Amino acid sequence: MHSNYEIDEMISAKSIAARVEALAKEISEHFEDTDKLVVVGLLRGSFIFIADLVRELDLPVEVDFLEASSYGNSTESSREVRILKDLRGEIEGRDVLVVEDIVDTGHTLHHVLHLLEARSPARLMTCALLDKPSRRETGVKADYIGFEIPDEFVVGYGIDYAQRNRNLPYIGAVRFTS
Ligand code: IMP
Predict the structure, then answer these.
(1) What distance in angstroms lies between residue 35's CA and the mean position of ligand 1's atoms?
(2) Domain residue extents for the chain
(3) 13-151 CATH fold
(4) Full-prediction pTM beyond 0.85?
(5) Whether the CB of 28 sits within 6 Å of ligand 1
(6) pLDDT over 90 percentage in the chain
């Protein structure tokens, strides 16, 4: 476990806000005919992103949350995905947008989509703030992506390193110093 690290700003709060607004516009246009969009945030990393995103959506939305385990307190992704907290509501026949903080190996999103598809939603789409395509181990790709980033461990704007730094207003790259 690394104990010393520095954080270098990678994406500013201003850039995030502008990108969230643009994504919300695209999503609002795509779902403009819906009266039943359920926005599903994957806990815990998406909590700030989903809060900002839904406030920019020009649609009637419901918000629900699902928690899947992926990372422990390490920087390596686990391939085993467990559902720790399921949705409160039914999604059968409904339009669903899954909101994820980062798609890394893709195992989490792949597993969650498989689970939700089995519940027969009308439309099932995905939005990830960050995408690390070079790390992908599955065929999954989010429909809406905020930023493509290199293979770096990042924190902030809801994303943690060992449960810390979620409250940073920007996305920063972690630089281990020892
Ligand atoms: P995947 O299953 O490998 O795609 O991992 C997805 C999850 O791993 C994300 O929702 C994050 O919670 C976590 N994760 C992936 N990359 C990072 C990172 O750079 N910093 C912090 N958490 C990460």
Answers:
(1) 32
(2) 13-151
(3) Rossmann fold (3.40.50)
(4) yes
(5) no
(6) 89
